Amino acid sequence: MWWKKPHINRRDWIIDQFEHLNISHQEMALLLMIDLLNQQQETISPSLLAKKLAITDQELDTLLHRLMSRNMVDILTNNHEVTFSIDGVFVQSSPYDELTHDLLSAFEKEFGRPLSAAEMLKLNDLSAHFDEKIIIYGLREAIINQKLSMNYIERIVRSKK
């Protein structure tokens, strides 16, 4: 699950992907608040969410219902505790589905670290438009020229079009 890796900022990703998620601003605010409270390991309740978002309980119910009907939010019980999960947002709209394991591994090996979310999005965009061999060519050229950056690799790949 790519969205659980420590280098992924889930809230930044939600904001960045807002236009593609087909959600309202209030729904986005709710998703961001749930993620923040989960990260802070706070016990989430509907009344807390409504208070934090400055909305009524009825408005919160409407937002939750819409997000749950689209499988973006799950309300789970575990050991008599209620937990809110927004994993559905990431499962159904994964930006990395098109990346092959070999391509991602090659980049992470050469960069000497896991790719950032922005780098993974750029790599995904390249893989959607270009053959994997051309992308690897761009990576090799960047290594040879000692200019290992996604922007440099992207310029090389796009120049081969």
What does the model show?
This protein is mainly alpha-helical. It has 2 domains: 91 residues, Arc Repressor Mutant, subunit A, CATH 1.10.10.10; 59 residues, Arc Repressor Mutant, subunit A (Orthogonal Bundle), CATH 1.10.10. The protein has 10 helices and 2 strands. A hairpin with a 2-residue loop joins strand 1 and strand 2. The longest helix has 15 residues. The model has no long low-confidence stretch (mean pLDDT 87).
Topology:
Elements: H1 10-16, H2 18-21, H3 25-39, H4 46-53, H5 57-69, E1 74-78, E2 81-85, H6 87-92, H7 101-111, H8 117-129, H9 132-144, H10 150-159
Antiparallel strand pairs: 1-2
Helix pairs in contact: 1-3, 4-5, 7-9, 9-10
Which class best fits the helix and strand makeup?
A: mainly alpha
Largest sheet: 2 strands, antiparallel
Bin the strand percentage.
Answer: 5-15%
Number of strands: 2
**Overall pLDDT confidence:** 87
* Rg of Cα set: 19 Å
Order of helices and strands: HHHHHEEHHHHH
Count of alpha/pi helices? 10
CATH superfamily descriptor of the largest domain: Winged helix-like DNA-binding domain superfamily/Winged helix DNA-binding domain
Tell me what the CATH architecture of the largest domain is.
Orthogonal Bundle
As residue ranges, the low-confidence spans are none
Distance between the termini: 32 Å
The strand line-up of the biggest sheet is 1-2
- Categorize the overall geometry: elongated
CATH topology of the largest domain: Arc Repressor Mutant, subunit A
**What is the total number of structural domains?**
2
